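We close this part of the discussion by returning to an individual protein. Part of our work consisted of pairing the sequence of a single chain with a tokenised description of its backbone. What the numbers capture is local backbone geometry rather than side-chain detail. The amino acid sequence and the backbone structure tokens for this protein are reproduced below.
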Amino acid sequence: MYSKFFILFLFFPFFVFSQKTDSLVFPKKTPYLLGAGLIYGGTLIGLNELWYKNAPRSSFHFFDDGKQWEQMDKVGHGFTAFYLSQISVKGFEKLGFKKRKSLILGSITGFGLISTIEVFDGFAANYGASSSDLLANFSGVLLFSSQYAFWREIRLKPKFSFQKSPFPVLRPNTFGKTLLEQILKDYNGQTYWLSVDWAKFLGKNTKTFFPKFLTLAVGYGAGEMLYGNPTENEAAGYKGLRRYFLGIDIELSQIRTRHIWLKKTFQYLSVWRIPAPALEYNRQDGLKWHWLK
């Protein structure tokens, strides 16, 4: 997943650019598309250098990892595919493509960006292309494209949060030595959320008692995972624990401001769930309350 997040955050500047309120239509699309292609190619080269260069290679093959890490990595794939599709669709729109064509091209591009990873994995002897990863990628693209096609806006938004776990101390090379590495690599500390922007369902002119930036979110996380493989994990004395959450969320993009850069900052930060009260359920503890999660 380190490589997936690497691509996601690399493309966030394009997300901010694509959200500009002024309409930008470029009559000559080729230079911009060529530039995007060069950036994509450079990203793949950098990814190969960072992650795969020293890994043993093999002929292309598939590897079934669908049961590993309590599927936390699959949720991460969907999360990343969602935002890569959003970035791509908005980018095509700003280049002057019509909305329907932008949606088609952007969705294909978003799926292609994240799914290229499977080509690298397929030639890596210690990994292998994953059909479940591809399915997760498609699900993330579908979550964005279906909303954009029917509503022309995002009402169900994936978000991410992280809290440190004790496992990086036990396997620092796997879960990360620094905080940044742990955020990207330690599934035990990650939680993925789906924030429901109820104000958009009710309509812009609907008056409500609660502020529109206060929303509900359902979350999924996991714990007790020293190893990804369940058999290996249990042999080490751990049993993976699925964690389900229901909590409130703050949708920063719903906060009104006249400052354009503050608005862009809110849009960027809105992919992160700000720590807030949440109710958790897991098979070990049953119901569990968190004042901040």
About this structure: The first strand starts at residue 156 and ends at 162.
